[in-house]
Amino acid sequence: MTINLRLDINGTSHALAVEPRVTLLDALREHLVLTGTKKGCDQGQCGACTVHIDGKRVLACLTLAAQAEGRQVTTIEGLAGADGGLHPVQAAFLEHDAFQCGYCTPGQIMSGVACIREGHTGSDSEIREYMSGNLCRCGAHNSIVAAVREAAEMAR
């Protein structure tokens, strides 16, 4: 059995026919070939699959694709400006070398953008707290916090 969905991903509408149990993560990666969103633990524990729905961060591995119908979904591919320029958080990640293997980077960036939007950048400890759902196994957390702090300062 399949259901027909219309998902608005990064400002583009996509028609999909998927099984009702398909997660947003699998719809993005396997059906729409938007592979920037990573599948890490597939259990909602690592944050590698963080995307935004209606401007709020969610874990795509714990969200059914059907739950996103009629809502605005933004993935890492949708952060760049219309001119192709990097989002300020993406640029700050490059400047601070806030990645090592890079696997967690898309989820970290998406969470960092939300952290700034939510106003949780008053201190490094506050950034760490609100970014705690995103794990980096390589240990780049200090650089990630520095990148989010700098991007937040630029946004002010």
Straight-line N-to-C gap: 49 Å
CATH superfamily of the largest domain: Beta-grasp domain
Please give the order of strands in the largest beta sheet: 2-1-5-3-4
Number of strands: 5
> Unreliable segments (pLDDT under 50, ≥5 consecutive)?
none
Number of domains: 2
Q: What does the model show?
A:
The protein is α+β, with helices and mostly antiparallel strands and 156 residues long. It folds into 2 domains: 3-78, Roll (Ubiquitin-like (UB roll)), CATH 3.10.20.30; 88-155, [2Fe-2S]-binding domain (DNA polymerase, domain 1). 33% of the residues lie in helices and 16% in strands. It contains 5 helices and 5 strands; from the N terminus they run E-E-H-E-E-E-H-H-H-H. The chain has helices spanning 24-31, 88-95, 105-118, 124-130, 141-155, and strands spanning 3-9, 12-18, 50-53, 56-59, 72-74. A 5-stranded mixed beta sheet has the order 2-1-5-3-4, sandwiched between helices. A hairpin with a 2-residue loop joins strand 1 and strand 2. Helix 2 packs across helix 5 (141-155) and helix 3 packs across helix 5 (141-155). It is globular. It starts with a strand and ends with a helix. The model has no long low-confidence stretch (mean pLDDT 96).
